[in-house]
């Protein structure tokens, strides 16, 4: 696995853009150094782009996001399937690192490793802003928090900011899946910008 996400505290930011923008992210360490950048790998058609401004629609669409180093070296691909049931994380060579499987939409997810074995779970609070990542024994390994940026920013732009705190030691691939939780939950729960 990559050593890129070795810091215990990370930030995942989605830059402020208009409602027609594609999904883009930056992963930073606690000092603000950019560790990875991400963007959707496929262009959306006009009809698909229009869906992003209507609440409850775009989070059902498929998204594929490529994470690279700032220099452009591929790291991971986040492949959110249509609907909300399955999102896979693949390595730079196409190997399956793990998957997020919906147990209860918007509230609980199961983390699976590349062979399909249970890796852990994610519990989501009611406003969908706090994500507790747990191992198979129920021990908390990470906390991902979506920061509130204000009503206008929430409704009119794609800007979102997440903090990721990892409670070391956390072995791979669970550590990488904990970091990917911010992007996956954004694609699954917040990309449509509906008020819930």
UniProtKB/TrEMBL annotation:
**Which Pfam families does the record match to this protein?**
Scramblase (PF03803)
What domain of life? Answer: Bacteria
Annotated InterPro entries: Scramblase (IPR005552), Tubby-like_C (IPR025659)
Organism equals Actinomadura violacea
Its protein name is Scramblase
């Amino acid at each position: 696995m990559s050593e890129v996400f070795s810091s215990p505290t990370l930030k995942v930011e989605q830059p402020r853009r208009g409602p027609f923008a594609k999904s883009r992210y930056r992963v930073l360490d606690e000092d603000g150094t950019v560790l990875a950048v991400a963007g959707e790998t496929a262009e959306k058609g006009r009809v698909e782009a229009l869906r992003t401004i209507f609440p409850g629609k775009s989070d059902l669409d498929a998204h594929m996001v490529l994470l690279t180093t700032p220099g452009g070296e591929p790291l991971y691909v986040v492949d959110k399937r249509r609907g909300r049931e399955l999102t896979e994380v693949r390595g730079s060579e196409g190997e399956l690192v793990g998957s997020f499987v919906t147990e209860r939409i918007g509230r609980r997810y199961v983390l699976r490793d590349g062979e399909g074995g249970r890796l852990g779970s994610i519990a989501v609070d009611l406003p969908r802003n706090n994500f507790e990542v747990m191992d198979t024994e129920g021990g908390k390994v990470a906390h991902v928090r979506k920061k509130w940026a204000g009503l206008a920013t929430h409704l009119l732009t794609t800007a979102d900011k997440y903090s990721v705190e990892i409670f070391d030691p956390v072995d791979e691939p669970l550590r990488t899946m904990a970091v990917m939780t911010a992007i996956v939950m954004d694609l699954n729960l917040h990309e449509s910008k509906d008020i819930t």
